[in-house]
């Protein structure tokens, strides 16, 4: 490309200038191409299309209208994809009950047939929109038929029933969810920072690492972190993961169904940011086969009884219940999880239930502080990165608070757990 000096100039691109041209450096013949090695420049002029587009995207409409833009967000037919569309609403909007229901073409999302395609969106949670700013909002919705019945992929409805149960409400369940994910290069679906068709050095230097040869995608991670804080999501931290190109962020502590609402909205925001950055977000629990860590969604959980003095007894009771419903939990903890839960790479075998203090190779991990203080929380390390947080959080609450095993089963499980160190 030849640039006319009189009309344009080139400037380095900052992390928030997504609409850029990517000029790759010349590579030696035969050398592998890595997505981590490129030079970014922006073509800028007063009258350029990019410049005019950015001006409109950054336009503050607040002084000129009494309307806002609401982005309705819902879960698509795969149970893991997020969909959204926009609608103009009068300002202000402070509660989901003030937002009208809407509909979408379910036959285009794998959630309805063409002859009866309308699916109804029920607004359930509101977040500030970090992309449009102002009073504009993101709206987490769930999906129903015209008759008001939840469609099969609507897992929020069942979760809401569990979290509204008086026994669950009284226990004030807290959740802290650790969402792991992987960045992939757009056109080759290979991890960001990896040589195309090749592999980086073995795992070791990448976890919480810094440097151009260890950390890939940090600007996207930081942009997501700030966008979540702006939106009102209770994001509590982030870090680079063991496999290069893989990251994690944590949401919580959140009470009840709020945890899942926050995770879904944070996933949507991350999808939007990676879209702008030209990178693919993967929630595959084992994106690369071989000696590489998978991606999970470890879920930390506690009840009021667990957090109070003497709560270790409630934690032990919950572990016994979880051991008895291991198969039910595994079946609901994400697709492809059998490729991740192999007993290697900080996981337990998918067919075996286990627990341990500070042991990352177990199904359930109890922290050293929890053991020392005699109260606290447990960490369920089984959920995959693509799990549905409505399903996982509700199932943990149901099994730990509502479900009662037979006396015989509980006694046998308690004996087995005692033999394994649960004393």
From TrEMBL:
GO terms for molecular function: glutamine synthetase activity. InterPro entries: Gln_synt_N, Gln_synt_N_sf, Gln_synth/guanido_kin_cat_dom, Gln_synth_cat_dom, Gln_synth_gly_rich_site, Gln_synth_N_conserv_site, Glutamine_Synthetase. Its main location: plastid. Keywords: ATP-binding, Chloroplast, Ligase, Nucleotide-binding, Plastid, Transit peptide. Pfam families: Gln-synt_C. Residues 68-148 form the GS beta-grasp domain. It is found in: Plastid, Chloroplast. Residues 155-423 form the GS catalytic domain. Its EC number is 6.3.1.2. Coiled coil: none annotated. PROSITE patterns: GLNA_1 (PS00180), GLNA_ATP (PS00181), GS_BETA_GRASP (PS51986), GS_CATALYTIC (PS51987). Gene3D superfamilies: Glutamine synthetase, N-terminal domain, Glutamine synthetase/guanido kinase, catalytic domain. It comes from the Eukaryota. Homooctamer. Belongs to the glutamine synthetase family. This is Glutamine synthetase. The gene is GS2_4.
């Amino acid at each position: 490309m030849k640039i006319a000096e009189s009309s344009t100039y080139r400037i380095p691109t900052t992390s928030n200038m997504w609409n850029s041209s990517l000029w790759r450096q010349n590579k030696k013949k035969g050398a592998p191409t890595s997505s981590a090695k490129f030079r970014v420049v922006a073509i800028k002029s007063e009258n350029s299309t990019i410049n005019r587009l950015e001006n409109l995207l950054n336009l503050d409409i607040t002084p000129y209208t009494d309307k806002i833009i609401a982005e309705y967000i819902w879960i698509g037919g795969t149970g893991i994809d997020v969909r959204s569309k926009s609608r103009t609403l009068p300002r202000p909007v402070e509660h989901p009950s003030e937002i009208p229901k809407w509909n979408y073409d379910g036959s285009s999302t794998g959630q309805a047939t063409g002859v009866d395609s309308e699916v109804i969106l029920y607004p359930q949670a509101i977040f500030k929109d970090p992309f449009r700013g102002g009073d504009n909002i993101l709206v987490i919705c769930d999906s129903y038929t015209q008759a008001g019945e939840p469609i099969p992929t609507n897992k929020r409805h069942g979760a809401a029933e569990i979290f509204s149960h008086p026994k669950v409400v009284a226990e004030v369940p807290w959740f802290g969810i650790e969402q792991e994910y992987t960045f992939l290069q757009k056109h080759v679906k290979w991890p960001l920072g990896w040589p195309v068709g090749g592999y980086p050095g073995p795992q070791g230097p990448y976890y919480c690492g810094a440097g151009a040869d260890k950390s890939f995608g940090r600007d996207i991670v930081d942009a997501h972190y700030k966008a979540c804080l702006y939106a009102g999501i209770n994001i509590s931290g982030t870090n680079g993961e063991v496999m290069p190109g893989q990251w994690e962020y944590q949401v919580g502590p959140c009470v009840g169904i709020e945890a899942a609402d926050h995770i879904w909205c944070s996933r949507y925001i991350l999808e939007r940011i990676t879209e702008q950055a030209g990178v693919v977000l993967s929630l595959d629990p084992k994106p690369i086969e071989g000696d590489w860590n998978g991606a999970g969604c470890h879920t930390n959980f506690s009840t009021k009884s667990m957090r109070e003095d003497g709560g270790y007894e409630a934690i032990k009771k919950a572990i016994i219940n979880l051991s008895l419903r291991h198969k039910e939990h595994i079946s609901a903890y994400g697709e492809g999880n059998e490729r991740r839960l192999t007993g290697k790479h900080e996981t337990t075998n998918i067919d075996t239930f286990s627990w341990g203090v500070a042991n990352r190779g177990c199904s359930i991990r109890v922290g050293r502080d929890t053991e020392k203080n005699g109260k606290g929380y447990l960490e369920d390390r089984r959920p995959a990165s693509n799990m549905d947080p409505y399903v996982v959080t509700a199932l943990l609450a149901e099994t730990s608070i509502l479900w009662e095993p037979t006396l015989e089963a509980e006694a046998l499980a308690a004996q087995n757990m005692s033999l394994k160190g649960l004393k």
